[in-house]
Amino acid sequence: AQRVTQPEKLLSVFKGAPVELKCNYSYSGSPELFWYVQYSRQRLQLLLRHISRESIKGFTADLNKGETSFHLKKPFAQEEDSAMYYCALSAYTGRRALTFGSGTRLQVQP
Amino acid sequence: GAGVSQSPRYKVTKRGQDVALRCDPISGHVSLYWYRQALGQGPEFLTYFNYEAQQDKSGLPNDRFSAERPEGSISTLTIQRTEQRDSAMYRCASSLGPEDVGGYTFGSGTRLTVV
Fold first, then answer.
1. Minimal Cα distance from B110: which residue of A?
2. How far apart are the C-alpha atoms of A66 and B28, rounded to whole Å?
3. Which of chain A's residues have a Cβ under 8 Å away from the Cβ of B93?
4. List of E strands, A1-110
5. Confidence check: pLDDT of A4 > 90
């Protein structure tokens, strides 16, 4: 069975500081990984997926199969980045729906 | 519609009552998913549909929970004989199709409180 772990419930940084939100997964096959974000009073929305290898709002994430990690990074945090971030995994076999981590709240202080 | 619509936004019900939560997905989206999210946790998979067919209901916690999508569009999640432990945010999401796993569009959710 697949599992996603986000070890930090809260990450607080100052504006302009680098950000790294940690995500580790366990899955015996080759997964597809995602980051979802929920801003205050908004819906949960897709931020990025590893197969796209894209940068969204300055965020990037690299899948490290050796370390089974998919950490989300941004070199310079902005106050508008404050939100709840969820890492999620999809398996190519078995259950196709996403398995989410418990989330990390990012607070960017001025 | 323009987005995924869930109703009601908030539901307070007494223990033992039945509740029905509704999800109207984006027009043309084949796949529809139901998740439940307890406070401080991530969304937890309940069930999903492709068109009207329920593909996986392994996440439904017990037989008090059921879901349907009779015409391949609007879906209803029904909880019978509600219990306090059913209190949570219930989230619905849709995607273009089964190939688009993870490319979800979520609704605003229904906050269910069982008193």
1. A43
2. 39
3. 44
4. 3-5, 10-14, 19-21, 24-26, 32-38, 45-49, 60-61, 72-74, 83-90, 99-100, 104-109
5. yes
Chain A residues lying within 8 Å of B43, measured CB to CB: 44, 86, 98, 100
Structure confidence by residue, pLDDT tens digits, B66-87? 999 999 999 999 999 999 999 9
**Residue pairs between chains A and B whose CB atoms are closer than 8 Å:** 61
Q: What is the pLDDT of residues A38-56, one digit of tens each?
A: 999 899 999 998 888 788 8
pLDDT at B62 over 90: yes
Cis status of the peptide bond prior to B8, with omega within 30 of 0: yes
The reply to whether B25 touches chain A by the CB within 8 Å rule is: no
Smallest Cα distance from A46 to chain B, Å: 7
pLDDT at B1 over 60: no
Question: Please, which contacts does B48-55 make with residues 24 or more away whose CB atoms are closer than 8 Å?
Answer: B48/A96, B48/A97, B49/B75, B50/B97, B50/B98, B55/A96, B55/B98
State the nearest Cα–Cα gap between B67 and chain A, in angstroms: 16
Q: Which position has the higher pLDDT, A1 or A61?
A: A61
